[in-house]
Specification:
With 127 residues, the chain is mainly beta. Helices cover 0% and strands 48% of the residues.
């Protein structure tokens, strides 16, 4: 059974850090692009970051310099280190898996292209 499970969310103060993990089962992550999305109440799901099978990464402008995505294929996991957190980072964070190549630099932000999704983990940053 294919499954993605996120963990590591929680409540943190403005300026704090959290490390999210995305663990896969039922498939080998190293053949997939893994992306992180987030969704705040009343807002659309937005792309945060991604990492390819060859460790190419990209980030939303709002998190560049604060978030770092990495993968450990031996553990079939992808992590998102989030530093200098801000209240506007609050939301449910999801990881998603896509098997293929991006056709342009922006397509990774499109939720509909992803094959698998996790259930999400809540991140709340208090001011």
């Amino acid at each position: 059974q294919v499954q993605l499970v996120e963990s590591g969310g929680g409540l943190v103060q403005d300026g704090g850090s959290l490390r999210l993990s995305c663990a896969a089962s039922g498939f080998a992550m190293d053949y997939y692009v893994i992306a992180w999305f987030r969704q705040a109440p009343g807002k659309e799901r937005e792309g945060v970051s991604y990492i390819t099978s060859s460790d190419v990464t990209d980030y939303a402008d709002s998190v560049k310099g604060r978030f770092t995505v990495s993968r450990d294929n031996s553990k079939n996991t992808v992590s998102l280190q989030m530093d200098s957190l801000k209240p506007e980072d609050t939301g449910v964070y999801y990881c998603a898996a896509f098997q293929g190549a991006f056709t342009n630099a922006a397509v990774w932000r499109t939720p509909g292209i992803y094959d698998y999704w996790g259930q999400g983990t809540q991140v709340t940053v208090s001011s």
